[in-house]
Amino acid sequence: MNFQDIIFYFFSTVLIASALGVITVRNPVYSALLLVLAFVTCAGLWLLLEAEFLAITLVLVYVGAVMVLFLFVVMMLDINLEKLREGFWKWFPLGGLVALVMVVEIAMIMLGQHFSLEEMPAPEPKAADYSNTKELGRLLYTEYVYAFELAAVLLLVAMVAAIALTLRHREDKKTLDVAKQVSVNKKDRLRIISMPADKKN
Amino acid sequence: MEFMQQQFEQLFGVEWGAMLFTLATNMTFIFTIIVPLLLGVAYLTFAERKIIAYMQIRVGPNRVTFFGIPWLRGWGQPIADAVKALMKEIVIPTGANKFLFILAPILTIMPALAAWAVVPFSAEMVLADINAGLLYILAMTSMGIYGVIIAGWASNSKYAFLGAMRSAAQVVSYELAMGFALVCVLMMSQSLNLGDIVNGQQGGSMLHWYLIPLFPMFLVYFISGVAETNRAPFDVAEGESEIVAGFHVDYSGMAFTVFFLAEYANMILVATLTALMFLGGWLPPLDIAPLNMIPGFIWLLLKIAFLLFFFLWFRATFPRYRYDQIMRLGWKVFIPITLVWIVVLGLVMQLPQTVREGFPLNLWF
């Protein structure tokens, strides 16, 4: 067991423990924070696989932006745990069945011949000037450019739709027109009058 | 160095010795970065109080001194402040979530310090010379927001929570403008490595710095940096007049001081990154005899100090933005500017070689 193995087992243990915590912890804020921990440790594992661009992007996008908004929402919600737990045993058989099917499916893929250790050896160490980012960019913008652009359009459509669904026009809304405010000049607003003094001396 | 490595290998065996030696040298490097940084933070607070005082025609701190030396009056102030903060009691409010309340300041200072790992101080002086350095810094600075949100929530106070929400929305919005401004830098330098970005600005004089072709991006980046660090005039997260002191209203003693340290460490980080990416880092403004004999590290420090002065100047000069104005500036002004500039830069890069070379001043590449 060398240094890298120790790091791998450390990260894996933390990852599994925090992932378990996400679904078992009672407090939803803790749950969201444990998910953040899971993302960060997962990024650590990806770094071990020499996928530094993906690892850092995972932290940047999911930890830095998505989970912040998640946490935001979770903190503002008033979650009633008793009510959430009410139907637990009633729906347990169905949920258990779905979980079982998923576990079997994942096991079939992971234990199958295409994912064995011989098929997926540890990545070859790359030279120091090898840039993961450059290679990924080259691949995305040449070979997979259509798929990439389609995914981008899909996201844009979803974004516009989300805004369109929540946007409500209110008649009584009071907004400031900043351009108007900035373009105000002294002449329109200020009138200087000369007034003789009331008293002499 | 090699003697030390041999010692380690004798003590712990060849494989483990080499690993532990790397660990030990890296720890030493980390301390040589962190200790001056924290001293810099301490004296930045002193500089802030002095500079703002002079701008407001006061004298600022002028009492605490070392060993009674009269011309050092005031210079002991940051040390005295630190000692005072260490002595103070840390009050944990009854309704607070104890674990998260303590965790929040730690989560704030951690990324503020971790980001320094990839910052180069001169052509050779860098702890981790990684290819995705800039991305790493973006990822680290975006994690700083957790401390603020958790602090706001764990304090179990309305004011703290309001401050946390304001801060979170503000930081997430300005991160976009910041990221897009950095995309322009990447397009110019064609590298994510901070050392390569500075080397890309080499060329004899300050006309080759990215400051000139990317001037709007420099402004966007620096102003977004001020907003990211929650500094005046964007400090609505603290907003004394509205929400007392924002997310750290319930913190006291060292727990509060850690937030304070993180804020100033982030200021220095933003100033350093701006210096590296737009002001040519450790390169002298003119590559001629007296100027290029000064070591690059000194030039970098001068540029950082120059930019930090702006932070203090802003605080002394501008009134606080209103919240909707902050959001408008981020989303409706900065992001469109950066998007347009990315397209302009892309078009310039696509111009044929002859046209680009005939460009006035030939600032583009």
UniProtKB/TrEMBL annotation, chain B:
Pfam families (UniProt xref): NADHdh
Reactions catalysed: a quinone + NADH + 5 H(+)(in) = a quinol + NAD(+) + 4 H(+)(out)
Localization terms from the record: Cell membrane; Membrane
Listed GO biological process terms: aerobic respiration
One GO cellular component term: plasma membrane
Cited PROSITE patterns: COMPLEX1_ND1_2
Gene Ontology MF term list: NADH dehydrogenase activity; oxidoreductase activity, acting on NAD(P)H, quinone or similar compound as acceptor; quinone binding
EC number: 7.1.1.-
UniProt KW keywords: Cell membrane, Membrane, NAD, Quinone, Translocase, Transmembrane, Transmembrane helix, Ubiquinone
Transmembrane segments: 20-46, 99-121, 133-155, 167-188, 208-227, 264-284, 296-317, 329-351
Root EC class: translocase
Main location: membrane
Membrane topology, from the record: Multi-pass membrane protein
InterPro entries: NADH_UbQ_OxRdtase_su1/FPO (IPR001694), NADH_UbQ_OxRdtase_su1_CS (IPR018086)
Subunit structure comment from the entry: NDH-1 is composed of 14 different subunits. Subunits NuoA, H, J, K, L, M, N constitute the membrane sector of the complex.
Family of the protein in this entry: Belongs to the complex I subunit 1 family.
Function in brief: NDH-1 shuttles electrons from NADH, via FMN and iron-sulfur (Fe-S) centers, to quinones in the respiratory chain. The immediate electron acceptor for the enzyme in this species is believed to be ubiquinone. Couples the redox reaction to proton translocation (for every two electrons transferred, four hydrogen ions are translocated across the cytoplasmic membrane), and thus conserves the redox energy in a proton gradient. This subunit may bind ubiquinone.
Name the record gives this protein: NADH-quinone oxidoreductase subunit H
Species of the source: Nitrosomonas aestuarii
Phylogenetic lineage: Bacteria, Pseudomonadati, Pseudomonadota, Betaproteobacteria, Nitrosomonadales
Gene for this chain: nuoH
